Amino acid sequence: MTKALAGLKLLDVSRVLTGPYSTMVLADLGADVIKVEVPGRGDDSRLFGPFANGESGYYMTLNRNKRGITLDLRRPEGQAVLKDLARWADVLLENFATGTMAGWGLGYEDLAAVNPRLIYASITGFGQYGPNSGRYAFDAIAQATGGLMSITGAKGGPPTRVGTALGDINAGNFATIGILAALYQRERTGRGQRIDISMQDCIAAILENAVVRYTIDGDIPTRLGSSHANVSPYDVFAASDGHVFIACANEATWRRLCKAMDREDLVTDARFEINAKRAENIDTLTEIINRWSSRFTAGELLAVLETNGVPGAQVLSVDQVVGDPHIRARNMMVAVDHPVAGTITIPGNPVKMSASDDTIERPAPVLGQHTDQVLAELGYSADKIAALKAAKIV
Amino acid sequence: MTKALAGLKLLDVSRVLTGPYSTMVLADLGADVIKVEVPGRGDDSRLFGPFANGESGYYMTLNRNKRGITLDLRRPEGQAVLKDLARWADVLLENFATGTMAGWGLGYEDLAAVNPRLIYASITGFGQYGPNSGRYAFDAIAQATGGLMSITGAKGGPPTRVGTALGDINAGNFATIGILAALYQRERTGRGQRIDISMQDCIAAILENAVVRYTIDGDIPTRLGSSHANVSPYDVFAASDGHVFIACANEATWRRLCKAMDREDLVTDARFEINAKRAENIDTLTEIINRWSSRFTAGELLAVLETNGVPGAQVLSVDQVVGDPHIRARNMMVAVDHPVAGTITIPGNPVKMSASDDTIERPAPVLGQHTDQVLAELGYSADKIAALKAAKIV
Fewer Cβ neighbours under 10 Å: the N or C end of chain A? Predict the structure, then answer.
């Protein structure tokens, strides 16, 4: 089966996580992604563990389905090759500090001059314009300055980083959306354009109700652990072997939970009889529920909850997610054979499309694996390729 | 200026957050989104606070730039109208429980029969196939079962929900990516397709390095607060009026932090002289840094860090994000005039495109605001529209 983006040509000069995540999603959907890396060294993320036979698991996760070449963008001969690649490409993605590509003569205007159909996407911490556009950011800085850290964490505890690099990944997804929208627009106009993604913007864009709670009511949302501002009990509770999330969104569910706990006395207990009272006495209530729930394994607890019609779910640890039969049935953990690392298991593609496969076609490239192939496709002669290699341009 | 997705026709029968977030992003990019709501009641989220003159801020955030109609999908006359709308549409998005739309005769095959070019996207908790596909989920259940909760939260503390409904929003973004990729494919094949998004899958897809840490090294990643598994100090520290994130990614930065603290004795202190030692003694080190940092306001602290070349950023609270001059300069907080609510400020569109505006063109609809207009565009006579209204189909 063909893939949705088959035929789309993407030139990826981005590094580490946010850009490579975007091009990973596009490659998973079938785009031909050429990843450009520094000769002799490669993407910084090649040095990030864990390692399998010396190959970075971090790099292999993010760069599957891509072809890899080396190219020195700091030297004029390398910049000339990049222009040839930009003539070939539909899309270029970069995540250098603002102004870096332009400084190399590889800014949007430079490349639009050789390929007006090129879509040129940049991801940076704070974007291409605005008073902070020169500031550098990485994941945690985006999570901090976008407001997300201030509303994540235990009640009364410090602001807390989301446990995955959401500052990077979320910006990568918005870049992917921008790139695909620009392709839609190009079908109509015949022209490419510049896309400017700021990691801080993208975090601010996912604050959802937190913004109007402030702009309408003047509340400053803060940290609530896993609990809910308006509904109790709605939280993570202890099992003997882990944790389970239990949600009582209304009075009927609360009564069913009391029945499940064999504590129907609580239904008429003045401290807990309505949601507002439960919210007021939540610490006591949480202790009561934890005392009950921790007598069961998570599996037993879920069965009791289900029997009684109380919504709940196990908090799965990463090993449990990797082994989850449902996740496996949906091809969300994929074993990939890598020529050096051997077989490794990495997350799959969550965009399931009836007319497009969700398979992973190839492992991440070893450094410079496709340099000869790609340059030959550009029409470079063997002599020219040899000369570029000798000069360490590629 | 035109917008990237101008001309794209989108039929949105989704409710609350995950589906409406996807169609919000598509509407912000210029798609003509018709939101379908239950007659007399509307989307459940119309009842979610905060309220401005009785209008839900939650609803108004997610449904700006859309037109709204009412339609009873449970009755055959309403199903017939939906089929007419499906003939008009390029894309349909729904987030009912698996099988609900098919039960109404509005499944993918039903609608593909009237419009083979239709792209039909579904978002559910666990997807359309697999052993758990019948299970119901909401945001917290996706965060729990996707593994994210298990790696978010304080060290030693319980699994913690991300403070925004990432289980919903993240699935919405992958749905948007799937829809746009299917449009790209349709330009080539002339045919639509079915897209199946599972909220659990989408969380598993953003676990990044946590997966290979387990599948390669056998580590089960757990909660680290805001700190880093391999780098110390890298955490949130207290200021007198808030918190600041400080990151020492290498020895040189650590030495600069010691200088900033006027504690160059720490550079040669055996407990802290190398990263591995600092990681071992992180509680003591955190206390030392907090004692120093809390003497300053966040603003003062950032100035000291910057002078000394130490990466840092303020943890902005939601009110600070809303007021941030940079966020404002990038049109990321937008004042929208609503006919009932008055002027409210909501988050803007983070996909900045040079050939496409990032303006918000219209407020969220009041219930049924565009029913007459949309049905007239379908070619329905005034009599037919009146009859549908009298029968409470619309």
Answer: N
